[in-house]
Design brief:
The protein has 11 helices and 14 strands. The chain is α+β, with helices and mostly antiparallel strands. The chain starts with a helix and ends in a 6-residue tail after the last helix. The chain binds zinc ion.
Length: 335
Amino acid sequence: MRKILVTAVTLVLLLFLIPLLLPGPDKASPQGTPPPSSAQKIEDLSSGRTLRVLLDGTVREMDVNQYLWGVVAAEMPASFELEALKAQAVAARTYAMQRAQWTNQSHPDADICGDHRCCQAYISPEKAAQNWGSKAEENTQKILRAVQETGTEVILYDSKLISAVFHSSSASQTLDAVQVWGNSVPYLVGVKSPEGDDVPNYHTEAKISAQDFKKTFLTAHAEAVLEGAPSGWFGEAERSAGGSVSRILVGGVPVKGTELRTLFSLRSTAFSIETTDSEITFRVTGFGHGVGMSQYGANTMAKEGKSYRDILCWYYTGVTVAPCPAELWNKKPPN
Ligand SMILES: [Zn+2]
């Protein structure tokens, strides 16, 4: 009887002791955080601030960093270096928070939208995973890290959120904002940009028949004189340091490189022109407006060992990268 009692007490004691001896879920790593190998979830990203995001016609209330996951996934290839993805996350966060301070006339009920022509691109986690196929989990975690590790960091100039514009690739030199949009911005000035050798379609050609060129150009500038051979239609181009066309005479009319880019759907303003009697050929370098951070340049810098802060401070002159001050983080559009 006594033996049975001792055995019973021992068993009960063991039942209480075993859980204490084994590592519980909170003891797997210090501070109760899951080990780094375990997968994080996008819906666990929490920044403490939400945005009203217009997606496919519906306004959704989303945490800033959950929204940013979809922006980074849409705006930059996931194969890029982690530091480049972090630079993109901070630039996109800055852009979004700056937009969120004012009422947007195109969508007054939403702080930002997922249309890259209006705000910045966004892709849902489901759609991104579909595009990535077997790389879905790896890419999801990589972008999650880029967003999470930059917390609430933004880019500031003169204690204000900057207009963090970016583009795909430059012609080895970014452009001054004044050259593209007509207004000077102290932190958007041209800098050298190491684009690297793996930019897809870095050099492209756009061919337009002389007839179509004439028709399109005369619609915009009826006063232009486009007669005789096309070789006589173009003056010498004024170029920026990187070779982008600032201004050029076409049929006697001075036009900006940006206007020709729009009229003929060129990938950038870094172009040269060749003519035959029947055809105009634009040879174009890079892709995008050329102002602010170059994404491919950022990736090259990351490969060279530069941090996301180095990258951002290189492309945006005179800025600081810091957690967003509370008064800017919480600022909402005036009612
Ligand atoms: Zn928008």
